[in-house]
Design brief:
Layout: E1 2-4, E2 12-15, H1 22-35, E3 38-42, H2 50-64, H3 68-72, E4 82-84, E5 103-107, H4 121-124, H5 127-151, E6 176-182, E7 199-202, E8 208-213, E9 220-222, E10 241-242, E11 258-262, H6 264-269, E12 279-281, E13 294-300, H7 315-321, H8 333-344
Parallel strand pairs: 2-3
Antiparallel strand pairs: 1-2, 3-11, 4-5, 5-6, 6-13, 7-12, 8-11, 8-13, 9-10, 9-12
Length: about 375
């Protein structure tokens, strides 16, 4: 059943487990993508087993508690794979005093079940498990993209329901599984609660992001697309709106619903019909100063690298683009991804010094 999470104006909760007709689910997904850029997805554990999610969070805790020397051997490289430590990312430099109060571990695509990057001792024996979870996320991404294609009424002769999904498989891509840890801050640190933030304001740069969260670990906030002004404001005075981990009606579910958001690439591809919504992660206002530990897992979906971001053969996208059609600047998915990576990790890319760090990368 597809429902909203309580009152009007809130991010909807949509069940994609098969209880409603595909066409109805697809329409609701389109409404969510064009209005909020975010949607909660329920699938009753049919797409990704709840046990697999729980196990991945256990692996995440084990990894982040590893000795710093082990994690440093996996330091993030130009291929966007590896570990990034506290304060190594500053997602909103205009508003932040110091870098993000978080650490993360990125996993690129696996080849024949093997990670194409160094792993810590805490992860080496779980390589197959990481690969399987990566596949679970990829399959769910394809399912959601198929529903988007149905909702956009893409021409059957051009690919129909498989138009997006066929461009997200069959070759190397920037798809990334990311473990995230936002540690509690000791009282002895120079943490300034009125200024510092766990993850600065940003938008994601891929097609869609799947976000897994734990009950009782809030902090995600968005600027609703409907409240945007001409002048971009992501500071403390912006209309930040909390996004609950478990929206009304899902509190007793065995696992919180998966939060899905639109990335910059898919927004660009749909000529901004789909909204890539700015979001951030803050220290909860309730509870002890410096917060409690927060863990989350994000899967960033991307098309295969050689995919050309050509106009989508959809009457809905065409109408939203104006009388003369498309408005989409043609580039490959790899070109789009690299432009965003350069804006986020300037120190890794020698030719990226002139890139402007605007609405960039990773998520909660």
């Amino acid at each position: 059943m597809a429902t909203t999470n309580g009152r009007a104006g809130q991010i909807p909760v949509i069940d994609i487990s098969g209880s409603d007709p595909e066409v109805e689910i697809a329409k609701k997904l389109i409404d969510a993508a064009t209005t909020f850029g975010f949607v909660y997805i329920k699938s009753q554990g049919k797409d990704i087993p709840i046990e697999a999610i729980d196990r991945m969070f256990n692996l995440s805790k084990s990894f982040f508690s590893s000795p710093i020397e082990d994690k440093k051997r996996c330091t993030i490289a130009e291929n966007n794979r590896g570990w990034s430590g506290m304060h190594s990312e500053t997602l909103d430099p205009k508003s932040q005093r110091v870098g993000d109060f978080k650490e993360a571990m990125n996993f690129g695509e696996f080849v024949d079940g093997k990670a194409q990057q160094p792993l810590t001792p805490s992860l080496i024996d779980h390589e197959a498990e990481l690969d399987k979870f990566h596949k679970y996320c990829h399959d769910m991404m394809l399912k959601i993209l198929t529903l988007f294609a149905i909702g956009l009424q893409i021409d059957q002769e051009a690919g129909g329901s498989e138009w997006f999904s066929s461009r997200h498989q069959g070759g190397p891509s920037g798809c990334t599984l990311r473990l995230l840890h936002y540690p509690s801050i000791p009282s002895s640190s120079d943490y300034q609660p009125n200024v510092d933030i766990r993850a600065g304001a940003h938008s994601d740069y891929g097609s869609i992001t799947l976000l897994f969260q734990r009950p009782g670990q809030p902090g995600l906030e968005i600027i609703p697309p409907s409240s945007k002004t001409v002048e971009r404001n992501t500071g403390p005075t912006a209309p930040w709106t909390p996004v609950p981990v478990s929206p009304p009606g899902t509190e007793s579910d065995p696992s919180p619903p998966i939060l899905v958001n639109i990335g910059d690439l898919l927004s660009h591809w749909t000529n901004n019909l789909f909204k890539s919504t700015v979001h951030r992660v803050v220290f909860p206002k309730e509870g002890r100063l410096g917060g409690e530990d927060r863990y989350s897992i994000a899967y960033f979906g991307h098309p295969t690298g050689t995919t050309v971001l050509e106009p989508i053969p959809s009457p809905i996208v065409k109408v939203s683009s104006g009388v003369n059609g498309t408005g989409v600047k043609a580039m490959t998915a790899d070109e789009h991804l690299m432009s965003r990576l350069k804006a986020t990790y300037l120190g890794l890319y020698r030719d990226g010094e002139d890139e402007k760090n605007e609405e960039t990368t990773t998520t909660a």
